[in-house]
Amino acid sequence: MLKTKLDIISIQYLNLFEKITGIKTSNCFNYNNAIVFAVEPHFFSRAIGERGINVRRMSERIKRRVKIVMLPSKIQDAEKFVKAIVYPVSFRKIEILGDEMNIIAGPQSKAALIGRESRRLLELQTILENFFHIQKLKIS
User: What is the C-alpha separation between 85 and 80, in angstroms, rounded?
Assistant: First the structure.
């Protein structure tokens, strides 16, 4: 599903993730200055660890925020996947038409999803293109 080239830093993050959690994944990306790891749904609770201990250990080691989300299996999982990535920002709903996605949000959420100089919008668009082959992302 994810077809991006990993750089050396991402490979180091993936190796550290495997060392701390015991779970192997090849899905690691940046969003809003956080490192996000996508794991299979049946490994999700194990990846987080008891009371979030694995997330805290990762965050302390790499000195950045860490999020762990469930790997989507189909396009119907897109809304749940996007909600997990952009949390705590919320939105009303997602509409998918072919290779276009429209995220419907309120004014404050819209600003938070787009970010300064559209940075978060571009990051999210790249993530969605890699996972769901979405060519155009619109936030309204």
Answer: 9
Q: Number of structural domains, the chain?
A: 2
Burial of 47 (0-12, 13-18, 19+ CB in 10 A): buried
Instruction: Return d(Cα 42, Cα 13) in angstroms, integer.
Output: 21
Domain boundary among 16, 47, 70: 70
1 occurs within a structural domain:
no
Query: pLDDT of 36-71, one tens digit each?
Result: 999 999 999 999 999 999 999 999 999 999 999 999
Query: By residue range, what is the domain housing residue 85?
Result: 75-139
Indicate whether 86 and 126 sit together in one domain.
Answer: yes
Question: Using CA atoms, how far apart are residues 4 and 86, in angstroms rounded to an integer?
Answer: 20
Structure tokens at 42: 């049946």
Report the distance separating Cα 88 and Cα 82, nearest Å: 11
- Residue 28 maps to a domain: yes
Beta strands in the chain (DSSP E): 28-31, 34-39, 65-70, 93-97, 100-104, 136-139
